Amino acid sequence: MKKRYQKIMEMCRDRMVTVEEMVEVFRVSPSTIRRDLVTMEEQGMITRVYGGAKINTQQIIEPNMYAKELSNAQEKENIARYAASLVSDGDIVYIDGGTTTSKIIKYITAKNVLIVTQGLNCIELAKQKGMSCYCAAGYLKARTDVLISNETIERIGELTFNISFVAANGCHPMAGFTSSEEMESNLKATVLKKSLKSYICLDSSKFNKITMSKFASLIGANVITDVLVDNFDYSIFSSTASVSNDGIKIY
What we know:
Shape: globular
Distance between the termini: 29 Å
Order of helices and strands: HEHHEEHHHEHEHEEEHEEEHEEEEE
Helix content: 25-40%
CATH architecture of the largest domain: 3-Layer(aba) Sandwich
Strand content: 15-25%
């Protein structure tokens, strides 16, 4: 059923999709589709309209990097400081190009670390600290300052990381971890597969939110966040680190 929800979201990406279209694609009854749409609307995934559904645009609009930097700034610093403490001497570390994950670099104290990243902000921070840094190049996605292409993903898939820190735009019990763009989701999924240990870093505002493209299941994930929200079941994760000014709690 969750796969059907994800497919419905993909179908609604650019337009309103009718119940009849969904019936034809999924080969289920109209009443089944209507029940799906009711559940998905309750979860904030779509908006029902007469005869069909459209995407919930509040979930998929991605702010630019400047707006992201201003959002939950202290929470992101706390998450980054804790994440950096998990890096060991000699590690090959993949760091995603988000505004939370990029901050990890300035807190890393481990020696002889190689940073692998596609984020321009991460490259600049690694340069400022005199750290070794590798980038697989690609085309610049200006809104998020990430260098990416299909060739980028292929090259990253040839590497192995001791530890990785991946950002998410959304974390939802129905949709999993999501990103706002399909190619970036493919990159994140590849990084997670090639990492001996991986962490998904996101502040509490991202929980119960959905963006366009799923890159990982919630089951078994290692998550670093700030405060825990009341209406989310964290037991599905393998581990959750809640980091705040008051300290660190591991669940």
